[in-house]
Amino acid sequence: MELSIYQVDAFADGIFTGNPAAVIPLYEWLSDDLMRHIAMENNLSETAFFVQKGEYFELRWFTPEEEIDLCGHATLASAHVLYEFLEYTDPVVVFETKSGRLFVDREGDLYSMDFPAWEYREIEVTERVSTALGARPAELYMGQRDMMAVFETEEEVRALDPDFRLVAKLDGLGLICTSPSQDYDFVSRFFVSELSIPEDPVTGSAHTMLVPFWADRLGKDVLTAYQASKRGGVLYCENLGGGRVKISGKAVSYMTGTIHL
Prior knowledge:
By secondary structure, the chain is α+β, with helices and mostly antiparallel strands. Helix content is 21%, strand content 44%. It has two domains: 2-117 and 248-260, Diaminopimelate Epimerase, Chain A, domain 1 (Roll), CATH 3.10.310; 120-238, Diaminopimelate Epimerase, Chain A, domain 1, CATH 3.10.310. The longest helix is centred in the first third of the chain and has 14 residues, at 72-85.
């Protein structure tokens, strides 16, 4: 069996920036075990698989270790593959996922994703979090999946050098660190050592929590964000209300190939 594979840098203005994802179109679903092995072999933060079902596409995301319920950059990468390589021409791509229906449209070189907004609640800043990060955040929140540490300055966020062994022991799948920014509305970083991904380069799903938080904090619904990882990436965001957010970014094709099974 041979499968086509595409590697795309999402939330990127050029190759070697943004967040790389592998995308594998299928005619029918492979076994979960085989998809896990392919994701492990790819060794990227996410490998996306999709199958067309009439007018929409079923979409699933796998890290090198397990399937996850939401991934922004691999969703953007999947839409990019459909438009750039698979002759998809409809104005909107509809993906059916474990997080419900997700919608992606393209205008020029910008892809916009309509995602659910994640709720969050403030919790006490603990010494466990401060010790894991090597710095004490001003505020701490717990979302539906991730923990979020809020700092007062961008310099604090950029300077973080976490102890990933301690980060792995914290609650939640990942730890978002964020602050306001002078050049953007806010910046963030995302640590996920629980899944053997010390720092995710650009995390669309984290912005389902970041966007409503900063929209409320800054009193504006249209926001520009930067994820300050080594690769870095710009995200254009909008708080849509009604429990939805729009997350937009560019994508760059890096590699195409064939998997031999």
